[in-house]
Amino acid sequence: MSQASGVKRQSEEKNFVESGLSPIADNFEPKIIGFLCNWCSYAGADKAGASQNPYPPNVNVIKVMCSGRIDPQFVMKAFENGADGVIILACHPGDCHYKEGNYRAVQRYRMLIRLLKQMGIEEDRCRFDYVSAGEGDKFVRVITDMVETVRGLGPIKIVQAI
């Protein structure tokens, strides 16, 4: 590297520091874990894929048999292991194959949000929504919105209390 390019790089780094920006923050791509119900939401994701309806690749999907089986500890472990956001997608009310699983999921989600607030994790980093098997377009909208929301929040800053 020439001396001139080294000086230019130092100048660029100084400008980033002074502006409060950093090249890392500008290129931030969030890592999101998605817990999807096997019967509805996962099928909705499959429909989006089969329809060649693109969505951001930032979400790592974990298929669960029922959204009601998602333990808040799973979500906390996702954050502990480096996730910047978590999305839980369930069957619509009244459509759960296990009758009340999605209602249980809503109750657990509400408790989870209170826990995240106590831990200093922004509420918008965790989202709950309904997506049915025929809603591939909605799946794409929800995922895209989640990625953009978390991207706007920036990298997560976790207190070691998890």
Automatic annotation (TrEMBL):
InterPro entries: MvhD/FlpD. One of its GO terms (molecular function) is iron-sulfur cluster binding. The keyword Zinc-finger does not apply. Residues 32-154 form the F420-non-reducing hydrogenase iron-sulfur subunit D domain. It comes from hot springs metagenome. Keywords: Iron, Iron-sulfur, Metal-binding, Oxidoreductase. This is Hydrogenase iron-sulfur subunit.
